[in-house]
Amino acid sequence: MKDREIIKKENLEWLKQTYFSDPARHLHLQKGDILLREEEENDRLYFVLEGALVGFLGYETDHPFEAFRSTIDHFVGVYSFFSETHKSYSTVLAEEPTILAFLDHSYKEHDNSGFAEHFLPVVVDEIYMRQLLTQKMTIRNQEAMRKLFQSEKMAMLGQLAAGLAHELNNAVGVIQRQAEWLADWTARFVGYYCDPGMELFFQKALQEGQVLSSSEVRRRRKEIEEAFDLPSNLARQVAATSISNEEIARLEGDIRQKLLQYLPFFEAGLALHDMLAASGHASQVVRSVKELGVSNHQVQIRANLALTIRESTLLLKDMLKGIQLKLDLEETIVLQTNPGELVQVWVNLIKNACESLRASAQKNAAIQLSSRREGHRARITITDNGPGIPEELLPRIFQPNVTTKIEGLSFGLGLGLSIVQRIVENMGGKIEVESQPGKTVFSVSLPLSE
Hints:
This protein is of the alpha+beta class. It folds into three domains: 110 residues, Jelly Rolls, CATH 2.60.120.10; 142 residues, no CATH class; 151 residues, Heat Shock Protein 90. It has eleven helices and 15 strands. The strands form four sheets. A five-stranded mixed sheet has the order 10-12-13-15-14, covered by helices on one side. Strands 1-8-3-6 form a four-stranded antiparallel sheet. A hairpin with a 2-residue loop joins strand 12 and strand 13. Helix 1 crosses helix 3 and helix 9 crosses helix 10. The two termini are 63 Å apart. About 3% of the residues have low confidence.
């Protein structure tokens, strides 16, 4: 049995030789020339010898629709030639210089035996190909409309966000400036009026914050408890300060009493450190919401990746209570980036994981953050053992206004992951997610600093 393409080729050759080989019935078109007009009469059947034709519906309107495209060995005018009205359903013009052969109704006056036998299979194939093209164009136009709708929605969100950011910007700015002033004034006061031990504890917290993880604090507690014969509770508080054994040993007098005096200074320094970090983060969030949908052109600097991740965990330390946090970070990875925006990425992803774990009352709730070099890029993963993202939301999880928050009191605009994706992509990176019940993994890939 012959292949369909072979049969089509044989039919075309027969038709070409029998009806379309007369040079007197050839037509030459230049680019842009109109062959047929919509609703106008046509009594010719055209066969493309060279070039290409395009058929449009609503050609005279503001939004013409491309109905078909015909190239070499294609027929044009089939419908109007064989219909009772002989009216073209589309406007057809040359996309490039084109040569056509044509057949008019005088073919009926001659011997046309074999015409139907050879022509009908070709026409059926032509109609089939045009249907396929129309389907593809319809899908493409639908996708274009979807993107246009998305762009309009993003523009609307951007306008709303700009208004919201304007209202918040002044308040956040005041908090940030006053936190900086208070931290500076308190540091000078402690340095002038307090003894060196108090200043050591205060400055340690103000400059570094609480850098040790829960597991590291537990390990240090045992070391301090054994080395200085301290009560377990006091040893745990001291361990959280990251003060070294050597610095503790240099304290004069009763070490236990000294530590009890100095720990409030650490707490004060830690409170100011967290205020500064939180106000800076809030300022960054306001800026990102204001620039939603706009490319970022901020100056970037070299930043240690592990430090940005640790800073984000400090900002969320209250939310992380009761959740086991595991950090597996490569400490020497450096990125050319905006550190504030990078912290915002980790805050959003960790916060989402925390909310998922708490909403599901997950037992043994855990979040793991890891970072690794992979060639010329850094790969960061945030993994939680929560219930997972609903399957129907997963393909749209990075779109604006998509949220998994369903509780009545949850105020979820669904902008967090959309902003995260924009930040990551503006850095030349990529973010992906895999999720199933019991394991959700957000993976971020970012270029390393050269």
